[in-house]
Amino acid sequence: LQVLAYNRHTYETVAQLLIITVVPAPGGEPPYQGEFLVGNRNVEELLPVAAQEIFLGATAGVWEQDDLHVINVTSALDRGGRVPLPIEGRKEGVYVKVGSRGGFSPCLASAASSQSRFRCSLGQQPLASCYDTFAPHFTIRWCNLTLLQVWPSPTSPGPVWGSGVLEEGGDFQPPTEAPPRDLLPGYLVTLLVPLAVATLLCLLLGHLMCCRREGV
């Protein structure tokens, strides 16, 4: 990945090449995933590892699991959010997806239930039966909480490669044989039809120019 930046005042450019190696997780994708919308943060504030550790510690208080890790961090502007006004220190918002191999806690299940969604549609507070361990560092929009349960997809077997050497038993025989075709009729039609049309046009043009002249 090549990052190109420039100075707005001097128009001086700087290029940097980043090598990113994507390695699959040792244990595969976690089956339980939760996505939280942090309303009082920008995306660059949650990219450092130290900030993610603090967020995971707060998440463990409501998830009641110890094997949590961050899967993805996305700006709310990439999800259709509006650019905040430059007043009162407003932030753009960040979606943080966290994964675990343990199930969801009753607190998270109640916050993402249909009753909680209905209360959010009425402008009321969602159902959250536990203490909010995110406060005061992170402001979570509980109405935007999304819980996912990912099931492992079966992998189809790949192709079986042979040795690359033709087995004994004679020469290679093609699967089908092309029958002989007579190309003479097509050749005559392609040649004679344009020749006949050109001859008729020449006779017609000669008749108009030679036999239709004045005094002839």
Automatic annotation (TrEMBL):
Phylogenetic classification of the source organism: Eukaryota, Metazoa, Chordata, Craniata, Vertebrata
UniProt-recorded name of the protein: SGCA protein
GO cellular component annotations of the record: sarcoglycan complex
Domain Sarcoglycan alpha/epsilon second: 31-147
TM ranges: 184-206
Domain of life (superkingdom): Eukaryota
Pfam families: Sarcoglycan_2_C
Keywords of the record: Membrane, Transmembrane, Transmembrane helix
Residue ranges of coiled coil: none
